[in-house]
Amino acid sequence: MSFLQVTDAEELQIRRSIAECDDLTLIAAEYLKTIELYHHFSGAIIAAVNLDATFLVYRAIKLPEKFRDIRDTYTGHQIDIEHFKKDYNAFLENGALIHRDNINNYSEELRQRFLRWEMEEALFIPLFYNEDYYGQIILFTSINKIDQASIKSCKQITRIFEKDIVRLSHFYDLYKKETSLKSLEKEKNEFLQFISKINTLSTPDEKYKVVAKQFLKKYPFDMAGIYLIDDGMLQVKAITSSEKKYENISRNVYEYWRQNSYQLKQSEGAPAHALLNESVIYIKDVQKIKHQPMSEKDKRSLECYPDLKSVLHITIKGGGASLGVLSLWSMSKIIELSDADMELIEHIASNIGVAITNAELFALVEGQKEEVNAALKELELTKNQLLETEKYKSKAMKIARDAAEASARVKSEFLASMSHEIRTPMNAIIGLVELMQRTDLRGKQSDYINKIEQSTKKLLGLINDILDISKIEAGKLELEQTDFNLYTEIENTIGIFKSQAENNGIELNVTISKAVPEFVNGDSLRFCQILTNLVSNAIKFTNQGMVKIEAELQSKTANCNKVLVKVIDSGCGIQKETIPLLFEQFTQESSSTTRNFGGTGLGLNICKKLVEIMNGEISVESEVGKGSEFKFSVQFNKALHECEPNSSKPKILALAGINLKKEFLEKCISNINADFKIVNSGNELIESFGYQEKYQIIISDSEISDIKLAEMLRRLFSTKAIDSQQVVIFGKTELEQSIIKKGVIIKENTQITEKVICEEIERQLEKSNSEEKKQEWDLSGIFVLLVEDNEINQQVAQEILESEGINVEIASNGLEAIDAMKSKEYHAILMDLQMPEMGGVEATKIIRKTGWGKNIPIIAMTANVMQRDRQRCFDVGMDQFIEKPIEPNKIFTLLEKEIAEKSNHIIRESIENKEKNEEQKNQEITVDLKLLEPEINIEEALPKMLGNEELLLSLLREFYESHGQSIEKILEHIKQEEIEKAIRLAHTIKGLAGTFSAKELAEAAREVESTLEQGSEEEIINKKIEVLKCAHEAVKESIARIM
Questions:
Q1: Homologous superfamily of 478-588+600-638 in CATH?
Q2: Using 50, 70 and 90 to split pLDDT, how confident is the model at 600?
């Protein structure tokens, strides 16, 4: 009987049974059962694509009795999507019927199944879902022929089942994805520990062995092997055993594989099949299938493993490509692997290639984040189609979102931690080198110290580059938005390289178009970072010739200006095929570049990312042997405030004459970032000083029209408005020796060209600037409180400050700093942020609330370079922020500036008046601290405050006022799904409560923090918060009793 003859009632009954089923296995079984009622087939494959349409997955298998043992092996088997597409195209061309005459038109995968399972004919039925092709069913027969009536009947049955087969296939995949996401944090920690161990090894052979041994430690297999693609073959690299009794077998297996490498063909055997399909081959019980058809190499390899029970072959990937295969064998017992085990093994294997090629750890963390984001995107795209209930949708999305937030939080914390942990010892090294350079050193000692300084600065630059990349990729890099002088920043940046360029015989020129606005709003630091990198590279790769920097206005709107900067050199140039790779990480022009010039290949990648963040583009044009032109554009906002002309801009006065025409002088001086005035007579030049103008340089022709040059100079010097060394005369002159001896510079035998004029002006400006820089800071005798917990950093900072005559006192934490200020006046405080007992932020908040700490300058010192740390300092009232490692010139300049600005507020009262005020306060406030118990342990709290009762009371009042509503804020953050903010607030409460010994509150806050970090169930979180709320209310009531 054919299915075509069934009644409507019978078909309706089938459809009802399908609708009631929500299990893929049961649907597949019901389908095959229905087919068997009307037709006989020897075998069947039900296959549907996975969620992201990258593989075709065998969802259910039916095989003849003789092949029954390998059915489980093929269930869940994944086929590359290209095979899937080829089979469908062959179906469209040949029709539904497959036989031995046309089997070669189908994929190698399908051909292997057809021939090895000894089939005569097969029926190919595509599966559709919403008119899209999602899978296929293949019905095999080894005896009977398939007639047209059977084909039509089977297709009709399939149409009834196909939508539910596809739907439940994807539902099953989604369920697996959800399970995977739940254990993502645990897997990632295991994975990072695993990879970090591999990355400590220096040779590939060591890495191969450690990889294999690590798998044997985690999973109960007896042997592990690593195979990698080498010279077009799959070759063995390492075979390792878990116990000594398997060592001989390992050696035999290694020797066999060394002599019998696999070709990269599926027919070669299981490892090659796993590699080419990027899939997993897991055979739980080898003994059941060892008599089944298999390749010759697989048969011979089985002879090397006595009593082999289980085997696993999995693809090793790296950089998006398949690199080899990891194989695990068990001779002692059958190995059962869970889905979680398989997920973790696949995840590790997919990244082993990255570890073997020495990729950086932060790239792996980023890979974790990208994977979670990809999972979130997949769930978002498929939720409406695949999830039938709103409850299940909400649950799946919450899992993915929490996992993504956890990954981002781990990356952010990693950056902050790395910044602090690396910069803290770097601060000590650089500071000690600075101190050593000030001592009496012998020749070799001085040379060694200078080289240590150079190497340390290079290392710090590399660390900054890596942290910049990490911040950019984590989305944590925030641009400053402040007004600044663009001309000055460009000139100052290029000025850094003038000495280097002159020493190398390179002409360094800067041209800024007048259309470029002088004042803009944006991030000057990042702009200069890009320019510095490009100019440094240009000089580095130019042996002779010139390096030219040009700035012009690319476009303009009502609120924005886009500036285009070009860095042009006449250096060695770049090969055409290398140019597209220049802006990739760790990429350089050639391997010889690193040997000859050094560098990591990070700089241009950072430049590209910074330019993109600043809404610009970067590109390069180059020709080998002729030079390169790098150009980048960045977008600036218009300056928020009208800025006065830069008072530090040099002023030049020029006197035109017979040799130096006015037009020529204008052309020369306009290329220099300076204000200038050109006059036509000596009298006019002298009159120019009557307007109280101050000029740094005077340029004069030797032949002027109205008065003699000597007379003009005498009258000029008599005003004492100008130093004679600032006067430059061009041309032949017969000046008296008395005037020449005053230091007037005469360029008598020089050919007067634009280049000569510009170089002389720049030389005089540089000399003037260098003389200004020699001035000393007026800091001798001031008192500074240094708040720092690291002993080496204490020593370094103290000696640097004392070198300028500063009196330094040290506090090791915030509590000691507050106590020190109660007995002494200081001109300034240098405050570290991360310290035990009490950090710099909390200490500053308390200092600012006291009468004696409102006006004192507080400068933050920290190794953290994240924008949020800077903002935190300013929010609590700190005046300035300086990064570690600390440069002496910067700290001296900051101290002088801040002390000068607040000098009228500091030392306002004498110590006697201050003591009198304190005595009055003590008389007014008489508090019985016992009223705080039992919620606060006074015996433990007071020693933490160095016995200072007022300090304890001040801290408790601050807590009562600032954190009285903290529990409600935590609940609101959770409601708004701002989990990270809730965690941060719980952490703050824990720290403060620990400081004043409110133990129950501190423990309750710690429990809430931990529960939120772990992503626990909502019910558990609510219980923990209820406990925290009770403890918090009790502490508030306790504090209220003394207020």
A1: Histidine kinase-like ATPase, C-terminal domain (3.30.565.10)
A2: very low
Q: Using CA atoms, how far apart are residues 694 and 359, in angstroms rounded to an integer?
A: 58
Contact 843, 877 (CB under 8 A): no
Going by DSSP bridges, is the β-strand pair 651-655/697-701 parallel, antiparallel, or unpaired? parallel
Structure tokens at 82: 């290209």
Q: Which helix (H) or strand (E) holds 151?
A: helix 148-182
Grouping H, G, I as helix, E, B as strand and the rest as coil, residue 42 is coil
Structural contact between residues 699 and 761, judged by C-beta atoms closer than 8 angstroms: yes
> Domain spanning 201-337: which CATH class is it, in words?
alpha beta
Q: At what angle do helices 184-199 and 361-386 cross, to 10 degrees?
A: 150
- Please state the φ and ψ torsions of residue 833, each to the nearest 5 degrees: -95, -45
Q: Cβ(745)–Cβ(731) under 8 Å?
A: no
Distance CA 552, CA 563 (A): 6
CA distance 680 to 725: 22
Q: Which CATH architecture has domain 651-770?
A: 3-Layer(aba) Sandwich (3.40)
Q: What is the pLDDT of residues 276-319, one digit of tens each?
A: 888 888 998 888 888 878 888 888 888 888 789 999 998 888 76
Task: For residues 624-637, give the mean pLDDT.
Answer: 93
Domain boundaries, the chain: 8-178, 201-337, 478-588+600-638, 651-770, 783-906, 929-1041
Give the tokens for residue 883. 């990064």
**Residue 559: both structure tokens together:** 């609120």
- Topology (CATH) of 8-178: Beta-Lactamase (3.30.450)
For residues 149 and 170, the answer to whether their CB atoms sit within 8 Å is no
The helix/strand/coil state of 403 is helix
State the sign of the Cα–Cα–Cα–Cα dihedral 866, 867, 872, 878: positive
With contact defined as beta carbons under 8 Å apart, do 750 and 730 qualify? yes
The DSSP element (H or E) to which 133 belongs, if any, is strand 132-141
Task: Give the total residue count for the chain.
Answer: 1043
Domain 783-906 grouped into CATH 3.10.20.340: no
Q: Closest Cα to residue 140, out of 156, 160, 120, 155?
A: 120
**Rounded to a whole number, what is the distance in angstroms from the first to the last CA of the chain?**
94
The angle formed by the CA atoms of residues 83, 86 and 90, to the nearest 5 degrees, is 140
Residues 740, 748: Cα–Cα separation, whole Å: 13
- 707: DSSP letter: S
Tokens of 177: 């994805």
| Confidence check: pLDDT of 209 > 70 | yes
Q: What is the pLDDT of residues 476-498, one digit of tens each?
A: 677 778 888 999 889 888 887 88
Q: pLDDT averaged over the chain?
A: 79
Helix H, strand E, coil C: the string for 585-646 is CCCCCCHHHHHHHCCCCCHHHHHHHHHHHCCCCEEEEEECCCEEEEEEEEEEEECCCCCCCC
Pairwise CA distance, residues 245 & 234, whole Å = 27
Cα→Cα distances 785→561, 813, 904, 1008, Å: 45, 11, 19, 37
Please name the residue that has the structure tokens 């050593």.
Answer: 436
What would the pLDDT profile of 901-930 be if each residue is shown by its tens digit?
665 444 444 334 444 445 544 444 467 888
C-beta neighbour count of 875 within 10 angstroms: 11
Contact 87/136 with Cβ under 8 angstroms?
A: yes
Phi, psi of 583 (to 5 degrees): -95, 10
- Say yes or no: do domains 201-337 and 783-906 share a fold: no
Task: Give the architecture-level CATH label for domain 929-1041.
Answer: Up-down Bundle (1.20)
The strands making up 880-883's β-sheet, listed across from edge to edge, are: 807-811, 783-787, 828-832, 858-862, 880-883
Closest of 300, 322, 343, 345 to residue 227, by C-alpha: 322
Q: If DSSP codes are grouped into helix, strand and coil, which group holds residue 520?
A: strand
| 314 bridge partner residues | 280, 326
Q: Which residues of 1020-1035 are buried (b: 16+ CB within 10 A; e: fewer)?
A: ebeebbebbbebbeeb
